[in-house]
Amino acid sequence: MAIVEDITPKVTSKASLKRSIDYILQTTKTNDNLIGSNNCDKYNPYKDFIFNKKLWNKEDGRYFKHFTQAFHPDEKKDLNLFKKLADEMVLNDKWKDYQIIYAIHTDNKHIHIHYIINTVNVMNGKKYQQSEVDLNELKDYSDRLCKKYGLSVIDKEEAMKKREERNKLAEDKAIKNGVSWKEEMLNNLRIIKDKAVSKKHFIYLLKTELNYSIKWIDTRKHITYIDDKNHKCRCKKLADGEEFSKEVLENKFNENLMKWKEEIASKYDKYLQKESINNNINTLSFTSFLKNLTYKNNISDDNKYILSNELSSSDLKDLIENQKKNKGFNYEK
């Protein structure tokens, strides 16, 4: 059984790259026979990493990625087997065109391998990008290698079941003590849901108001919410399991957007009457109207975002033309 984890620090630099390489190559943890590389000299990885970055003029942004691959304590097989596995691991489709230095550590109860990857592709200079799907594919590749070399593979369904049981015990304990992060997340999400008018706006509000992040992947059924303390929860585990599903949220967004349009249309109509604008309605008059609202603080920062991101030029034209006819918005559009 091998557990693959991305342990890259949030902030990376030349200095942290050097420290990380020095750490994984410590002679108290590994030896020369258990060290390997891909697309670089295993005795001068730092120098090669920096040279490649300069070659492609990619010395900014994230400097490296750091992964570990940890094996079960009972798996005390020939170390040469783990070396062969690591040599194949660095050739997976995601990593093969990047510079990698790795070291097998034997100083703990369980054998584990550290992989440090230069984020600049040696073939085309592109920076390393990684999605959740990429990470899962990496873990699947690790599982296939474990099977190939006679190592155990974790039962993912059983592991998920145990993790959910642990989470449930922790949640019950938190509720008993009067503190539940999941309840707090639920209440916060309800507030944001009532304000958002689109998926993009929903994500924006979660980030700016709560410092929450979200994994909303079109090819996946469930949304995962992550709070400011890095607690994660899929939508099916919140409330009745449907309240924060994609379909329910999108219906709510449409409802909120329609109400918002009604509010703006009403304010715009009053503005036109006050300014005695009749037959000369145009985009300029609408722009003046928005500036007037902003200046007088009659519109929230939230609605400023909506105006700049969710109101298209066709909406503008529709609003202006229909106001000329005293019809307001075409809400079925």
Sequence-ordered SSE layout with sheet pairings:
Layout: E1 2-6, H1 14-24, E2 35-38, H2 45-55, E3 64-71, H3 79-89, E4 100-105, E5 112-118, H4 132-148, H5 156-176, H6 181-193, H7 199-210, E6 213-215, E7 224-226, E8 232-234, H8 246-274, H9 283-295, H10 301-309, H11 313-324
Antiparallel strand pairs: 1-3, 2-4, 3-5, 4-5, 6-7, 7-8
Helix pairs in contact: 6-7
Tell me about this structure.
With 333 residues, this protein is an alpha+beta fold. The protein has three domains: 2-154, 2-Layer Sandwich (BirA Bifunctional Protein, domain 2); 157-244, no CATH class; 257-324. It is 48% helix and 12% strand. The chain is built from eleven helices and eight strands. It has helices at residues 14-24, 45-55, 79-89, 132-148, 156-176, 181-193, 199-210, 246-274, 283-295, 301-309, 313-324; strands at residues 2-6, 35-38, 64-71, 100-105, 112-118, 213-215, 224-226, 232-234. The strands form two sheets. It has a five-stranded antiparallel sheet, sandwiched between helices. The protein has a three-stranded antiparallel sheet with strand order 6-7-8, covered by helices on one side. Strand 6 and strand 7 form a beta hairpin. Helix 6 crosses helix 7. The radius of gyration is 27 Å and the shape is elongated.
